[in-house]
Amino acid sequence: MAIGISWLARDSGTNSELSPLTIYSARVGFDGKGQITGLAQPPALLVRAAQSHSWSPEGTQLAYETKAATNADIHILDLRTRQTRKLTEGSAPIWSPDGSRIAFRRGHRTIHTIQPDGFGLQTVARREERPGVRETYPESGYYELVWSPDATMLLYGFFELGGDAEEVFRIASAGGQPRLLTRSVLDSASPVAWLKGEN
Q1: Are 159 and 166 in contact (CB under 8 A)?
Q2: Paired strand residues for 73
Q3: CA 1 to CA 38: how far, in whole Å?
Q4: pTM for the full model?
């Protein structure tokens, strides 16, 4: 048995934090007891100079982020044709479990979803503007995004300016009123995974 995996890595021989990342994929082999036996095939280079990435549910398309100067864009690589196309401006793409939409951020100010064909852009959440307020590090706003298994909800991390922790919120994938999940529960939280069957 083998399963496919993918990862981001810096090119061999470079250790600079500023050097571009590359997306690789491979298949990992397992024995009858579920123990890893090694790579079932050599790693394949998929994309150079990428930031983050997310696979379509059927594993035939890859949404990934590229960054140049101050701009970040999301592209889609079709593994069947090896063709790449720009989807939209944004970062941190996450493919929905049903394959119908991709969630992403624009900076840390807004959360959006879009169809994989580039149509149907929706704004899910927007951070309140603060004219004249100087941002600090980390920048306030939206961070990690995670889909619910039924693709109707999103979890996101939010860091409040002047706060001391990242909090996790839940919001409908079509937008609406977010619900805070973690205040006074954890010192700092980031959404990692949504348990199947949980809403």
Answers
A1: yes
A2: 66, 89
A3: 11
A4: 0.82
